[in-house]
Structure formats: structure tokens, C-alpha cells
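To whoever picks this up:

The parser on our side crashed when reading a file containing two proteins. I've narrowed it down to the boundary between the first structure block and the second sequence. Both blocks are reproduced below exactly, byte for byte. First block:
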Amino acid sequence: MKLGKYFVHNNREYYQLLSPVILRAMNIIAKIPKVRALLKYCYVLLNAFLLQSRVNINNYDVIHGHSTFINGLSALLLARIHRKIFIYDIHALGIDAYNKKSIKYKLEKLLEGFIINRSDKIIVIDYKLKEHIQSIFNVDNKNVFVAPNGIDSSFFRKRKKDANLLHNYNIPLDKYLVGVDNSKPIEGFNFIYKNQKKIKKLIDNIHFIVFGNKENNLPQQNFTFLPNIEYRNMPVLYSVVDLFIIPRPKNAQTDTVTPLKLLELMSCEIPVIVSDVGGLTSCIKDNKTGFILKENDISSLIKIISYVQNKNISKITLNAKDWVKKNKSWEFAGQQYINCYNQLI
């Protein structure tokens, strides 16, 4: 790619602002911890400068800054220079990953607050995140709109089990198949892996399918670790499992951020067991759209798995699918943006 080249990737339009040589140099330099920390703050001005030089800001009426503060500050700077409406679009608070006593947390909290309190409007992806931001930054309720991540329920739908697919991924045909995510530590996969013997002792025919292309050297007797899966194949692979578990540990991130995977599974009518954290229970109502597990309660988990395995829960999975269609569609999300814009015009 050349500097300034316009291109399309995964149906999204991009405009490259840095040459490959500069990108490679920055990647090398960024491996030095102290330099990486300094570069993080330099990116704010760099982003603003590059956008200013490559894009005619006057062609736009509204500027969206996407979390975290690096993107947000760049966009806010341009919006104020050009006297444009500024909306801060927050999908997660980056500071939630830090120790609250650390200098990094305190500094970036100030920066996030600086952007949030100077935004014309704020858009977040979940009501739990809205409550979280309001509690930290004392934001006026009328300035915060909830526009959830949307999914296409016509694409994410229940498919027939594909025997060839099971064979290709070495997934056993005669087992009760339970999906679990291992793409990030936040997913809580270790809880399942550590307790596999207890689960296996009471539910002998169980086999776990692990989503998330995370390299590991773990013994795989009761597990099938899937490789990186193409997006177009996700509904087919979801439909292979009989049940999916999302045992996220409780923290500020999991209490405020809903994973898209949960919505996709619900739309595919896959029964889901989730831990009792806000980002999951905002979608799952116990015994109505799924099942809620108390954190680290392995006995309760085994009981729920046995219940799902032996009972007809089609009403619950249909409720889940209908709930996603009503509350997490792109049309619903788009309407929230329209509501936000209407207050700015």
C-alpha cells in the first residue's frame, strides 16, 4: 500500500494516513516500554495532524470520536478547531483495565473526563456502561444515548449440524458439545479448564469446543481447540454446539461490556450459561432467555448443564432469539443515533 491510498477491506472503506515505512519504524520503537507509553500520548496529536492534512473537515457536520481517549482527544481537537458538533462514541472505558491506584489510571481518567465533559453528546453500547460512566464522571442523563452493538439475525440463525464440519475439526459426533471462549483472559476459560474433571465426573459424555484462536499447549483430551474461523462460518459452527458457557469473572469491564458473541449465540438459538456480571445479565434473564451462574460456583454450573441437557428448553432459546431481534438489531441501534442527531440539529 502507498501513502494516501484508498482501499476497501471487509466491506469497510479506509484511507491510509501513514506510509508502510513509518508504520514499521513505529512498531519497532513501540516495543520499548517507556517509549511506547510516550508514543501513546503523541498519537493524539499525530492522529489530528494526519486527519487535518488528508481530510477536508469542512465537508462534515458532525465528528465522532471513538473510545479510547487517544481517538477521542484527536477528534475533539479537530471538532473544536473547525467548530463542529462532537460526539464521543464509547464502547468501553479503557481505564477499567488498570489498577485504580496507578498513575496510569489517574492520568487517563482525567483525559477521559476531559473529553466526556466537553462532548455535545455521548453514545454508549449498553445501559450498564451508561450507568458506569455517569457514576464516574457525573454526566447529565439527557446527553447520553445507548446505541447497542447490532447483529444481523437473518445471518446469525440456527443451522443444521454439519457432520462434515464436525469431522474436519475432529469434533466427536457422540458427545454433548459445550462451547466456551478462549480469545481473551476476560472470558474466564480457565474456570472451565480447571474444573473439567469435576464436570466430567458427573456429565461423562461432555466435550468442550473452544472458540478463540489463542495458542496454548494444554492437554486436549476433553477439548477441541478451533483455529481462527472465518466470519461467514460462525453461525454454522455455533450451531454445532448444544450449549455455550460464558463464565466471565466480575470486574469493571465485564460489568459494563456485552460481547457480540453472546448476541450471536442467542440469535442462533443456542442455550447460554453466563456468569453474574452486568455485561451479560443485561441480556440474559435467568430461565427466560438463558441461565445465570454465580461466579466460580462449579456445583451450580454442573446442575445447570444437566438441566439443559435433559430438558426441553426450546421456549427459552426462542425467547432469547426474539429478545435479540427486538433490542440488538442494526435498525434499533440506528434509531438511537437518529434520536441523538435530532437533539443536535
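<<boundary where parser fails>>
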Amino acid sequence: MVVALSVMLLLPFCKAGLAESESIQHYKLLSSVEYSGEGQFKNQVETLLNVRKQFLSDNRVQYFISSEDFDLLGGAISEQQSSSRELSFIVDEKTGRISEGGKDLGFLEKVNNYCISSLKKVTRDNIGKTWKQSFSVPFLEHLFSGDLNLTLTALKMNTEVFGEVIAVRALSEPFVIKSSGTKKKAGNVQSKISAVYLFDTEIEEIYLSISVFEATTDINGSKEKLRYEVGTYMTDSTGSSVNLSGLGKDFEKLVSKIGLNNKSLKVEKETSLPQWAQYEGLTGAQVAHICAATACEGAPNPVASLYVPTVRTLAMQSRGTLPPIGMFGTGTVSGALASNVVGMGGMKIAAGPLFMGVSPMTAGLAAGGGATAIAAGAGGGGGGDDSRSPSGL
């Protein structure tokens, strides 16, 4: 009885200790921005992200995210700073909603919470199937209208170290972003998003994520193209990747269809990004990244830990506040992944033709592809009932 009483008295203190426990994860971020019009723009960044999770009461988790090389809240680290400041926000694990992100994450917080409220499909219930998910963003209808329509495929795969894992791919239908050119002439920007996430079987841990956003327009009188490519993978504290050996051909096929470049853009006449790319194009890309990540996870768990620093980095790259950083320099995201991620060496994950020519994504846009004017975001959309076995990946 004395022992039992002691356990009962200590239990509340144990729970309190667990509620305040922490864990730290590390990810390598590879981010590339490319633009071609009358000139070219390219910015590539490679950095180690530190993701610290503090477990709070009431099933809430507070995230603290920082880069080893720059300040996610404001650009390159100044000489007066010893390290970058941390992004911070809280995720309710029951609802998936973000809160307390402050003014720096206000927009992303709003988009995330619309996405979560729109989910109609649970990914873990659709393993081995293909299904549809749609999103809309009513508070961004001045930039978008309609829905962002995604086709998702989820497959079980095996790795030598982690055992069974879940790979999920999202491919969007072409959508339109409203914009204006240099002479304030209204026009359309044809866009597309694609992404792959590799999760554990509980779809709570993220081992790898890859996403590609592409936009084309002739709003300024000539053909212009904007492209964002991002890859993240789990590492140890030194930046060495976890071992993903064993994924095989099915994973290679899944990734190859998202349209990664096999060659980097050559800058012959350097320019800055035009207004439509810096503002409407960037906003569309950020929202589309959040939608695709949320749809791939399909559950109220924190993919935000990766897409939040990703879209913050893209914004700094696009607006010229972040110099090129890292070792993959004039290479490509696909090349860096194949070289650095254990188990991906030798995989043919890049698309065929070069981005500035005709890729699988631009080919669909050029042909029309049934493009719809859409809001690349979330909030009020519904999931289609298109569950079926994947065919040809």
C-alpha cells in the first residue's frame, strides 16, 4: 500500500516532466530559385536546420527552428549576431492548427489552419491507393479563384535501417495566379506544384521531402519562367544524412515524376526577379507548398516543421536578402540529393529535358492541360472519392 501510494503521488510529477520534455531533429535544406526572361536569376542555398520540439500540456508541441547559416526571421546573420534567431510556433496535435507564431508567421499560420480544416482524406487509410484532394483560399481570392486540385499516391516501401516507410506524392493540376506586369497590365501566371514526402509508418516522422513549383507567363510581352525546387532530408547533428538504403526503383519512379531539373540554369545576363515573381508568384508558391505538404501528410501532425523554414527561405532568396550559401552551388537539387543522401546514389530522380526547355510540367502547361483558375491554398475544399490502386506510379 505504501508503494502504491508513493506511485500515485509521484505520477502527476512524472506527467509534468514528460509534458516539458524536448527532442531535437536535424535536416539539411537544399533550396533553389531560378528565373528566366530577358535575363536570368539564380539563388541556391544549402543549410542545416535544427528543429527543437518542446512537448507542452494538452497535446500541444512548441517548435523552435533555426538555420546554421542565416536568420530565418530576417536574412543573413550579421556580424553582431553569434547565431540565428529561432522561428517559434505551437501545434495542437489534436487539430493540427498552428498558433502563437507571431507576426512573422501570421500569413503561413492562417494558410495552414485553412488547409487542416479542408482535409477530407486520411493518408494512413489510403496506403496503396491514389486519391484526390482539393483546396481553396477565400481570403486570397484577389489573387486566386477556384480550387487547387491535387492527385495523391501513397505507397509502402522498405528501408534497411528504418524498416517499412510510407512515401506520398502530390501532383497538382495546372492553376492560374492573377498578376500584373511592369505596365500594370493584368495577366495570368500558369503554375503547378508537385511534392514527395517520405514518412515513418505512423506518418509522424519525416525522413525526406522534395517539392517543385513552376510558373510561366508572357505578362510582360515575352516568355518568363519561375521555378522553385526544395529538398530536405533528415541528418545527424553534423549534417550527414540518415541511411535510406533499400528504397529501390518504386521510389525512383515516384520522385522522377515531380519534375526535378537534371541541369542547373546558366546565368548569361543576370537580373533580379520581376514584380510578379517577387510577389504574386512567391505567394502562390508558398501557399501551394503548404497545401501539398498538408495533403501528403493527411493528418494533424507537424509537416509545418519543414515547410515553414522552406517558404521563409524561398522568400528571402526571391527578394535578394539572402546570398547563395552552401556547396551545391551551380549544381542541382536532384544532384545534391543523389550525392548526399545515403541510399539515393545512382537513382534517376530528375526529369528528362532541362527546365528552360520543355519539362513534364511545362509541357502540360503549354498544351493547356485542362488548366483551371485556382486558389493555390486551403479552406473549404473537399476531397474527391477517387481511391484506387496506383498505376505506373
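After patching the parser it read the second block fine. The helical segments are 2-19, 106-118, 248-256, 275-297, 304-318, 333-340, 360-366. The chain has seven helices and 15 strands.
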